[in-house]
Amino acid sequence: MGDPTVLGWCVTILYFLCAFLCYHAAHNLPHTPHFARERLGWSALQAATLLLGVNKQLDLQLHITRVGKRVVYELGLYEFRWLFRLGIFLAALLTMVVVTAWAAALLRQASVQLRWAYFGLLLVFLYIGIRVALFEHVSSRWSGPLSLFLEPAGLVLVGVAARGSVRARLGLGRP
Length: 175
What we know:
mainly alpha
């Protein structure tokens, strides 16, 4: 269950650290309508990193996959399971496209820090997209390079950007 390796736990801690930093980035903004979109952007990043961090160790998608396979088998549709996999892949892809489009609209007038943070989240989404696309084949050939770069690099970008946002608001760094 989950990713019990040292790297897996380090990445999980990174997810929760990013959620914490995004929380502070959102709550260090002035509570004026001018900063409402910026606050929404940081809050959405906080929620995303928190949920992805929980999933990193619980592997909820594996439980859903097991239940789905059982249901498909009991319905006598197991020979068509590739259609279900394709549907799941397309649903994940559509979700990422919708989130990216929403973020693009949000980021038009966002701070540089928030833009960098969403670029980091985009790297995490790229990692997730490749994992979904390659599903069972990821662990054999692609796990090393993907795990060592895309996911942690994306999270580091999110965390550094959130910290930079807080420092800029407190007057400790460049705005």
